[in-house]
Amino acid sequence: MAVVLLDDHPMIRLSLEMAVSNQHDMQIVGSFGHSRDLLHWLQQHQVDVLVLDYILGHDELDGLSLIKLILTHHPHLNILLYSSMENLAVIRAAFQRGIKGYLSKREDAKTYLQALRVVCRGQRFIPEQIGIELAKIPMRKCDGTVLDMPAAEKNDLLISRLDSMLSPREAEVIRCILDGMRNSEIAEKLKRSRKTISGHKQAGMKKLGINSDLELFKYRDDLFF
Prior knowledge:
This protein has twelve helices and five strands. By secondary structure, it is of the alpha/beta class. 29% of the residues are buried.
């Protein structure tokens, strides 16, 4: 099994390489800290599994866009999302984009090696508790469209999902952004400073695994419906 890594933390890559080093049935054939280097390398090499961190540097594509880009050019590549990001909505959206497995960076080496072997076979790997929680979230229709529901019910679902993912202040700010409000307008509405609003916004977006307002609107349905 040929494995390639993409993670912007050198020590994480080193630990993954060490975990694989004494396994007779797998080998790390590439290790990268930047997606552009990985994408260039993949043009000339074939591998069985890509171990992909979801949240990279600020100069990188957002996770969902990167997954889509990679699988557009390499549709048969098995992706194992190995990340500290544990947001259920983001994990669900990543599976809908085509990843084969998800594993938290908190898991031990034995589970990591098991995940690699399962994903290499083209099968899904989802930790038991994550799988239970994901099963509670209604998935999209098979054609990818959002499940039909009245506008009021859809808004209630949006509020419920945000409240379950974020702190009350973070959820409130993100809801205002989705309503089209600017930071200054949100600060005035909530009687908070712009700096405070900006802090809640950045914290909320980090938990959602996105980097900008554009990404928030782009993946609104993927994340919340």
